[in-house]
Amino acid sequence: MRLRFWGVRGSIPVPGAETSRYGGNTSCVEIFEDGCPTLVFDCGTGARPLGRELVGRPERAVHVVFTHFHMDHLFGFPFFAPLYTPAFAVSVTAPMFTGDATRERVSRYLNGVFHPLRLADIPAELEFLAVRPREPFQRGPYAIRSETLNHPGGSCGYRVEKGGKVVCYVTDTAPLTRPGEGLAGGGKPTARERQLVELLRGADAVVFDTMFTHEAYLERMTWGHAYPEYAVALCVAADVRTLYLFHHAPEATDDELDALAERWASATHPTVKVAREGEIVDLEG
Ligand SMILES: [Zn+2]
Ligand SMILES: [Zn+2]
After folding, report:
1. Which structural domains are found in the chain, ordered by start?
2. Which of 43, 82, 117, 245 has the smallest C-beta neighbourhood within 10 Å, fewest atoms?
3. Average pLDDT over every residue of 49-67
4. Is the pTM of this model over 0.90?
């Protein structure tokens, strides 16, 4: 199982000289393996280059799973090339009550007003599905479990298992506790933190929302984003191998992200890396 970052930025795409090394595209992460349909988490603007890559491969199925429908996670969806390849089977899953509700939510964007196309104009074989938190489900060869997160309007974190390897994708989320409490406060995990720790338990790689610094989080606690120390505390408790800091703030420059990587360079339990657009992580290695 391999993972590739196609978009690592939060909130809004930020192309430009100051973000060219870590990348300016918004959330899109691919889980893949030769001979299997690809699994895609979120369709931020990173979904456009990913889609071009997918239509060049022999496989003609892809599973898209959304954490939630904020625009930075949805904006790239109508620019995802498999949608315009008639024989392509595209499943779209989101944390909704029914598949029809997922379809309805996506159709609010592809409605001829916010985008020139309507959902009915898409030539691919589209299937819309729903996932309920903590209800295990399967997409292609991937066994997936989910957990509710702490984000305005809701978001869902995922754990993917295949062949004994585990990847977790956890964005967008604020800490589940108030400052000073639970793991974030250096104490014992609260009940909700324990659920999230179980989702992350023993993972080979965890991709986690760390849009804020701790100081910025304290000023914007209701915005629904976390900070590196919190992600590390959860990953320590869950015995995670490698943590990827993700959903970088739009204003974070490459130099600032280098400094962040440097600050965590000596961490070993877990190893802490700053997610970078284009990076491929081989979980078998
Ligand atoms: Zn976001
Ligand atoms: Zn969001």
Report:
1. 2-282 (3.60.15.10)
2. 117
3. 97
4. yes
